[in-house]
Write a structure and sequence with these properties.
Length: 266
């Protein structure tokens, strides 16, 4: 397990481990980085080693690769730097990340994060991803397929791509400036506060799962396709964009623009 913590005062990298035997090697590279390496085959029995790293509060990027099956990583804070983490089935926990880019891959483990403000690429290969706070970036790419769920609070981005491959999607708000795609391949999609910037294109595709979507006032082009699942949509009072329904509406086959009641009308 790797635990990375940002110090409020230190301007050096401090390393502490439960096992200071020959397992770990620490060196400074020619470009000024600090490299910590470990031979997983030489780890103590039980795999309970914990490596703790304290980094400066700003401008210190982190790159972690864990080859041991199930080994996890926890990063409390990154400010104005990059973050890259790879695990082999282990979970990744993120605190407050405010950087240039975030690139995380768990190969089956879960991702749990508080707030992330950076261009983000996250892959879990079936693990769930849970955001307790905002996920903000010019580019936001999340892939939890096959079957991993995505649970988020507020998702903001110029370009957003979320794919769960069968897992459920839940987000309290989704704001897209350019292009946004959410695909679940059979999983349920619940998205509230879908909003654009005037020229955006947004697509929600559940691949057979049910969809519950709530629109904010500003939306340009939003395509909602359940491929057989039920769609429940609500609109604010005064919603200006025309609404076109293809499928069954109020028990009748429909392929036309229609007037839908707003949430304010009950």
């Amino acid at each position: 397990r790797v635990v990375v913590t940002a110090s409020e005062v230190m301007e050096v990298v401090e390393v502490e481990t439960d096992d200071l035997g020959p397992t770990y090697a620490i060196e400074r590279t020619d470009d000024g980085n600090v490299r910590i390496s470990s031979d997983a085959s030489a780890s103590s029995e039980g795999g309970g080693d914990v490596l703790r790293v304290t980094i400066p509060p700003r401008f210190c990027g982190v790159d972690v690769t864990l080859g041991a099956a199930g080994a996890s990583a926890s990063i409390s804070s990154i400010v104005e730097a990059t973050l890259r983490v790879r695990t082999n089935g282990g979970d990744i926990e993120l605190g407050s990340i405010k950087g240039a880019s975030v690139d995380v891959d768990t190969n089956g483990g879960a991702i749990r994060a508080r707030t992330v403000s950076a261009d983000t690429r996250a892959r879990t290969n079936g693990g769930a991803m849970t955001m307790s706070g905002k996920l903000v970036g010019s580019l936001v790419y999340v892939d939890t397929a096959p079957g991993g769920s995505f649970m988020g609070e507020s998702i903001f981005g110029d370009k957003i791509n979320i794919n769960t491959g069968g897992g459920a999607v839940h987000a309290k708000s989704l704001r897209v400036s350019e292009i946004g795609v959410v695909r679940s391949d059979g999983g349920r999609i619940d998205v509230g506060g879908v909003e654009g910037a005037g020229e955006e294109m947004i697509a929600l595709d559940s691949g057979g799962g049910d969809i519950n979507v709530k629109f904010a006032e500003r939306a340009h082009i939003v395509h909602v396709n359940s491929r057989g699942g039920t769609i429940e949509a609500s609109f604010p009072s005064g919603f200006a964009a025309p609404t076109h329904v293809v499928g069954s509406y109020l028990g009748k086959p429909t392929d036309a623009r229609i007037d839908l009641p707003s949430a304010d009308d009950g």
